[in-house]
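// run 5 | inverse folding | seed 20
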């Protein structure tokens, strides 16, 4: 059996949503409208689905591939403009309805959820109301979603601070970080890969995928996506240019490593000269061991801007005889050589780098490997934990000399006061 889907093109009252993706692909609690409709048609017995896309058909084609995810054969047909249902039937059912799903399932216009009579794109309130009504049912078919508390739904690999406040109903999708003191809800949807910083407040709002909401930032009755902020009741739009308030995390994955500056490399050389007794102490602790004093390691980093490679490897060393941060002492030489920085994300092995599976996680490689990291400053003990991934993503977006000095001050207090040799 065959079916046909018409992707919506121009919807003047949904322009904000269409700025980020074709309306057929706008996220709805972790899945797109096109995804939900293809699953619905597959359940009705469709084996072949034609998708008519007038708006960015290349993105639609990339999202559905050939339909393997739904067990149907999907073909995307670009159109010059959005066809009506009658026009689509006349063009694609010239041989009659035989072999097609019975009407109205034979031709579906993506302007509502499957099985619903309520439109989505007449105004922003329609779309937001549909999301809120969908929460309780959507948890059943979203992988990894669970009901964290009554009316509070949290996704796979999301990190919620212990003193964050989640007020129902609210939805927090996969790979999301909610910081200390943050308040999320009620009536709030936070999509995949978002970061709500300390004491941020999001109420009666939608936060689009891979969006950073800054510390102490308030988002009320709004759609926040990237740098854009839209009041969904009134349609008033504003662009937030300050990355510390609101920004797009995904756009930062295109950044490339810059070589450490001369000052940082000189400081590392000076630190090596001043702390040479560390090597002696390590040797004294390690001399009875059959293991080498310096252990070679292979790290992965993004290339410098002119390298033109997706990633590259470099060699650094760790020192035996120490626990904690002091074993990183040989990495000062990596800074001198320009392979690493004082502050960055901790180096990953090639195997770990291959485990970075989405735009959110690959931000780890968007900055230089560092002797110290934000995860170190926050007391994260596991180098490649889910918590460390979130801190790495945040640092990749917000790094700068002020953030670096804050991290170094915390680290040095911990190294000299708390770490044992």
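// decoded
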């Amino acid at each position: 059996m065959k079916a046909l889907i018409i992707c919506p093109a121009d919807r003047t009252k949904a322009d904000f949503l269409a700025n980020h993706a074709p309306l057929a692909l706008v996220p709805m609690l972790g899945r797109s409208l096109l995804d939900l409709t293809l699953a619905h048609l597959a359940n009705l017995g469709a084996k072949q689905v034609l998708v008519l896309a007038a708006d960015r058909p290349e993105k639609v084609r990339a999202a559905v591939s050939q339909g393997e995810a739904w067990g149907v054969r999907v073909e995307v047909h670009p159109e010059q403009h959005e066809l009506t249902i009658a026009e689509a039937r006349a063009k694609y059912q010239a041989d009659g309805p035989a072999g097609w799903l019975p009407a109205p399932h034979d031709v579906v216009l993506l302007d509502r959820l499957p099985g619903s009579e309520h439109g989505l794109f007449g105004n922003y309130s329609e779309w937001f109301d549909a999301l809120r009504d969908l929460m309780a049912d959507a948890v059943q078919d979203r992988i990894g979603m669970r009901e964290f508390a009554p009316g509070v739904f949290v996704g796979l690999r999301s990190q919620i601070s212990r003193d964050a406040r989640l007020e129902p109903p609210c939805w927090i999708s996969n790979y999301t970080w909610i910081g200390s003191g943050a308040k999320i809800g009620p009536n709030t949807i936070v999509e995949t890969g978002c970061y709500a910083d300390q004491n941020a407040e999001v109420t009666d709002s939608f936060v689009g995928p891979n969006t950073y909401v800054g510390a102490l930032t308030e988002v009320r009755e709004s759609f926040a996506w990237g740098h854009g902020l839209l009041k969904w009741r009134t349609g008033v739009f504003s662009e937030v240019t300050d990355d510390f308030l609101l920004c797009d995390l995904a756009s930062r994955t295109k950044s490339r490593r810059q070589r450490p500056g001369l000052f940082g490399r000189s400081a590392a050389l000076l630190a090596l000269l001043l702390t040479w007794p560390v090597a002696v102490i390590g040797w004294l602790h390690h001399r009875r061991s059959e293991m080498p004093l310096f252990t070679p390691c292979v790290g992965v980093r993004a290339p410098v801007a002119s390298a033109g490679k997706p990633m590259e490897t470099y060699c650094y060393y760790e020192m035996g005889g120490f626990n904690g941060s002091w074993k990183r002492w040989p990495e000062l030489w990596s800074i001198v050589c320009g392979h690493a920085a004082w502050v960055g994300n901790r180096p990953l092995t090639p195997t770990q780098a291959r485990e970075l599976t989405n735009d959110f996680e690959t931000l780890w490689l968007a900055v230089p490997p560092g002797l110290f990291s934000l995860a170190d400053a926050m007391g994260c003990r596991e180098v490649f934990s889910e918590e460390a991934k979130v801190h790495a993503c945040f640092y990749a977006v917000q790094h700068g000399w002020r953030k670096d000095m804050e991290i170094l001050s915390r680290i040095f207090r911990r190294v000299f006061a708390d770490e044992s040799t």
